[in-house]
Recover the amino acids of this structure.
């Protein structure tokens, strides 16, 4: 069973930036389309962005398009999410998983955007 460990969250002011990381155990990471999800209090978990196994194609939710960038390093079994121009509505716990949510969820990393 693959384990996922997210990190990089924190408290940031509106307009600020954060870079999230997700390390997956096991070499099968490179075979999968990977994704970032987020869950705000009282809301369902939603898809934020996803990336093909080779990293050549990415897709984003409309709410983050132009502000967030998903990337990966298959040599390090690591998925990244660069978040710029953060808004209060980006506040949530952020998780990584396969695009089909196939692996056990990690603990997530809290992102809070507030002045």
């Amino acid at each position: 069973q693959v384990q996922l460990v997210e990190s990089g969250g924190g408290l940031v002011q509106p307009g600020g930036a954060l870079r999230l990381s997700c390390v997956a155990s096991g070499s099968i990471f490179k075979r999968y389309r990977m994704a970032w999800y987020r869950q705000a209090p009282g809301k369902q978990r939603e898809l934020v962005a996803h990336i093909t196994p080779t990293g050549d194609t990415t897709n984003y939710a409309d709410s983050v398009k132009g502000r967030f960038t998903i990337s990966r390093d298959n040599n390090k079994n690591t998925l990244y999410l660069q978040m710029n121009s953060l808004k209060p509505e980006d506040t949530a716990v952020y998780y990584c998983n396969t695009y089909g949510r196939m692996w056990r969820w990690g603990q997530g990393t809290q992102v809070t955007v507030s002045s």
